[in-house]
Every structure is written in C-alpha cells, then in structure tokens.
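INSTRUCTION: Work out how this chain folds

Fields: amino acid sequence; protein backbone structure tokens

Chain under study, with its fold:
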Amino acid sequence: MRTAVALLLTGLIVILASAEGRAADPSRIALVIGNAKYPDNEFVLTDAANDTQDVADELKRDGFAVDRQSNLTGDGMRQALDRFYARIAPGTIALIFFDGFGIQSNRQTYLLPVDAQVWTEPDVSRDGFALEAILGEMNSRGAGIKIAIIDASRRNPFERRFRRYSAGLAPVITPNNSIVIYSTALGSVVSTSKNDRGLFVTELLREIRTPNVSAEQALTNTKNGVVRATNQEQVPWLTSSLTSEFSFAALSTRPPDNKPADQIPPKTDQQKPEPQKQPKQEQQKQVCEAPKPDSPPSADDLARDPVISDLTRKIAANANDANARYKRGQVYAIKHAYPQAMADFDVVIRLNPKDAEALNNRCWTRAATGDLQVALADCNQALQLNPGLTDALDSRGLVNLKLGRTAEAIKDYSDAIQRNPRSSSSLFGRGVAARKSGGDGSVDIALAKSMDPNIAKEFAGYGVTECVP
C-alpha cells in the first residue's frame, strides 16, 4: 500500500512539474520589474503591469528563479537590485526585465522608480538607475551571461519638464557576454499602449518559449516580429556580445502553457496581412488627416493632480517660491492649461526678469495660445540672455511658423537641430515649415514621427498641422 501511495505521489509531482515547467535553477536568476503606477503620469500603464506578470510566468517555466516586483520606489528598486546582485554566483545567467518609464541623460539610459522627482537634467542621475551600472554590477559579481530586456521607450511626463523633445533611450556599453534589447530604436519612443498588453512583449514571449533556439536568435526574432507587425514603424534595438550558448526554453518539446490565444497568438505568416497599395490621391488624403488635439483639462482634473496639489501647497506657504511656481507652470503648460501656466510664469519672471528658462516657457505657452508677437519678444529675450538655449530656438521656430514666416522658422529649427539632432519637435516643425514654403519636408516629418509617434498630435494642440491647403 505504501509503495502504491509513493508511486502515486511521484506521478503527481511529475505532472505538476510538467504543468509548471522546469524547477527553478539557482544558476538562472531574473529580476522582473513593472512600474505601472507613476503618480506624475495621467494614467496607469496597464500594459506594463500585465506584461510583467506574463514575462515572470514565462521565465519561471524556463527554469529561472524569478523575483517579480511592481511599482517600486527608489528605495524599493535599490533593495530589489541589491537582492538580485546577492544571488549572483560565478557563472550565473542573470536577467533583468524592466517595464515602465526610462529616460536618457548624458548618453546614459536610466530606469525610473515611481517616486522619481525629475525636474532638471541632474535629477535624472540622482533618482534614476543607470542601466550600464546595473550590467556592470552583474558582471563584477561574476555573472556568466548578462541579459537586459527594457520596455521603457515611452514619452514620459518627466522629460517634458526640461526638454521639448523625446530623447528615447541611449546606447549602452555592455560587458563581455551580454545581450540587451530595447523595445524600439535608440532615441525613439513609442505611443503609450491603450491595450492590456504590449506588442513588444507579445512578440518576446512567443520567441523565447520556442525550444532549440538560442537566446540571441530569439531576441533577433522578437525584433523582426515587431518590425513586421508595425510595418517598420517600430524597430527594437539589439546589441549582443554573447560568446556562450544559451537558450531560454528547454531543448525539448514543451507542454502548452494554456494561455488564451488572443494573448499569445500563434506565429503564422498570415498574422499580419501585407498592406494594400492605395491610390496616390488617397495616400495624400491620409497624410493630411490632422490628429485631434487633447481637450484642456477641467478645473477639477487639475485640482486632483497630485503634483499640482503638492506645488500649490508650497506656494500657499510662500507666494514668492519661484521654484515651485516655475514647476507648477511647467505642469500646467504640459497639460495644456495655458492660462494657469502663464500666470505662474509671469510671477517667476517678475521675481527674476533674467530667468531665460522661464522666458522660454512663457514664449512657448504664448505661442500655443496665439499671442505671437509678445511670444516672439519673450523668445528673443531668452536667447539674448542665453544664446545656447536650444529650446528657445525651438520655441521661436514655432512662433515664426505660426506667424507665416517660414524662412525664419526653418532657420530657427535648423539651428536647434544642429545643436540637438534628436529633437523631434524641431524636425517636425522644420518639415511643416518647408511644406508651407512650397518644399517637401516629408523626410523631417517622417523622422520626427519615428522618434515620437505623438508629435503630430502635440503640434495640433498648438494649432499647427502638416497639411498644406
């Protein structure tokens, strides 16, 4: 009887092991972080929350010992990373997956915790976690293979506070035997997904669960799958220095994972039909369908915003707190609450008439509302005070564009691009100015859209579209 029971238990263990995948291997470790709830963002990144769970489940089936964490503060990320580093032994396969907001600063990619307080460039390195430093620590601890999968190429509320363009993520210098993949190209961002799951992770899961495929090939297939699915509009960035053989999935046929078909669709050549060629007139009509700008927020929406509420409390305690006024003005302007933004910038400039940044922001705000001649004076004064202020050139380009002074707009935008070739705002503005002056401009516009899919919508909010009557 005991023998029969023992055999039955053994059979149950085997069945359970098949259902769950391989037992966790201490030589395979993974830290999976999904930061979906940023208080400074307008909505929860639902795709980040769901994708993180799916990735963690898949890695467990692949035999990884997974530490899955959600919505980590700076202290939480630091502690999670320290636990991750402590588990690395010589020869360990160590993987980090991050889904949330990332930002580029000084040619470094930083992963942001949910409580990051980023208002200026130096704040990025203070509150963010440098990807190169993470990979370097994994290497110094003796990890045999280092893997970083980063789905953080989103336009975020932080960089809008101190730059007018989307910087995307920066290239990373990797230690030997490493592989890194970003969800889109360097310096580019993707539109925040309104779906429950993201395209990049959908392709990733399909590929890494394929048996008998190397990790490098699986991630290359992920990149190619995203490119196909988006008709080359989103091109993940991949860099590898792998010298060791490694596969995510077991080198055998695995049981089905029972995921719904709509979550992980089968890989077929018919998954995405080839786009049909359209008549030239219809293509031109599609190009010139201007996006609808976002509606200005209501007074209640602004009052409920936690960042605005915190800054308002500081201003109530000290009406001459120029720093809090400037920050609140930035948030108002980003949310298209232009009258409120103008009032704050007015106070900041009254307190310090030589504040070039505040003058530039007021110029941009006035340009958006159509107060163009006064906006031009603000931009000119900002550039007199700080000739190297690239954002002021970009703002003045917008003013000149709306005034119909296309030659002056093209010059301002070109000067801004010379200083910052990755400025999607300046590229789009120059492309529109070129079109309105009788030129083409399509190359600039296409490049701007590839770097920031929301750039046309942003300009529509300023009353500017790429369409030419």
Q: What stands out?
A: The chain has two domains: 15-240, 281-461. Residues 2-20 form the longest helix (19 residues). The first strand starts at residue 25 and ends at 34.
